[in-house]
Amino acid sequence: MSAAAKPILFLLRAGFSNAKQEPGGAYCPECATIAGLLYYYPEMAAALDVRLVDAPRPRPEVVALVGEENQSCPVLVLPVGDRPAGLPEFNGRAFVSGPEKIEDFLAERYGTARSH
After folding, report:
1. Global confidence as pTM
2. pLDDT (tens digit, 9 = 90+) per residue, 43-89?
3. Range 65-87 burial, b when 16+ CB lie within 10 A, else e
4. Which of 45, 53, 70, 93 could bridge across to 66 with cysteines, CB 3.0–4.6 Å?
5. Domain range spanning residue 77?
6. CA of 91: how far to CAs of 4, 17, 102, in Å?
């Protein structure tokens, strides 16, 4: 693993259109949870490559790294060669999907507090 390589965290950009056509658009509450965690721990946020992506599928940047079937956000994609046991992989890259699993992984990796 390259010293410069950072895990990539994909979050959905807020304000996207939704089926209900809410004024001002919508946001993903799961992505907002992870964004809030990054606010509490800016040193952890600096250790990640955080990328905001548009909500409509397909999400090409996410699909390229974890495959079409794994493009739900939030998703944390680890650098090539960083392959902790028990994580799913796509083309040799491990990834963590969903807010609870991402929170647990980040707490373990960066020593942050856990959700109460």
Report:
1. 0.92
2. 999 999 999 999 999 999 999 999 999 999 999 999 999 999 999 99
3. bbeeeebbbbbbbbbeeeeeeeb
4. 70
5. 8-110
6. 20, 32, 20
